Amino acid sequence: MTRLLVAAGGGGDVIGTTLVHHALHGDEPAVVLSYSWERLVVDPVPGPRAERDFAHLRPLTPHLSQITADSSAIAPAGSTLPRLAAELPISLGLLSPYGGVPLLARQITEAAEKYAVDEVTVVDVGGDVFARGDEPTLLSPLPDALVIAACATAGVPAVLRLAGPGLDGEIPEADLLPDMGSDHLTLTGADTRGVEHVFDWHPSEASALLAAAAHGLRGGCVVRDTGRPVFLTDASARVHRIAVDRVLHRNRLAHALYSGAVDSLHGAEKVSRDVCGFSELQRERDRSLGLAHESWSSRSVNEALDDVDARLRHLRSSNPGARYVTFRCLAEGLGLTGAAAQTLRARLIEQRPGQCAGPLFCLTSP
Known about the structure:
By secondary structure, the chain is an alpha/beta fold. Helix content is 38%, strand content 18%.
């Protein structure tokens, strides 16, 4: 049978969702619904992408389009979803938050009816979907909250699979675990086989950390998104099963969106300001304006390689106890993004294989 899953946060959560699906159901067919809502390093246009931002989408249901390997984001927008559709063993549907909770609910309902599924599985890597909304480290609650509100509205049986508690660097593992219960599975290295090649080019840090935890890596890892280490523990490889009703009760933003049947992204942003005290969309807009006045270094990959050891020393001194760094964090710290960052990764793997730890890089030589 075909399984229907929702990648709650968009972007890199598609990778984590594919990993979780394989752990749960092996090679069974899967349809993953996801936003195209990505970091500015991938998509310089703030906010999520809509159907109008893509070429060559394929109709999936009356209100839901499929992203395929032939799809592409229309410049200046960017998206990793078409390449993920080409490289991952899933079918990929594009969620649109612009119609708020009602449209998302309709998209989920139509997909559930098309594939005759008994249950929808929502997957979140890290756990901000299980936030209350007042945590000082919370950064991006809106995409996840909209998905939970939409699932509750759709009326289709749904369950949350929270993978790698704390790995997104937003809500610490210690704050999540006491309320998550004991219903979980533990990922292994075998579960990552279908996604490992994606980390050669995809900048996702949370999903990379999830794969690293599944391979047994433990200890602190410096990440780009928060500037502080995320710690890999035995709990980092877990995937917890939580009823969506429990999530809706705990997540005050999701509950407000659901109870208000908020029918636009603009309205959802206002609710986020009221409940959480900030708008991540506004933060994206502000950051985008800042990036417009910044210029990345024109240095070559060879120049960056010459500075690797100095950069690693700085990271070690700034983050005592950390053992790893994500390739994205290392590359951006050296002034490289995009294709240049991918080349740096490939060269480091070739030249320093002893420091490569799956999707992560060791801060010290073996």
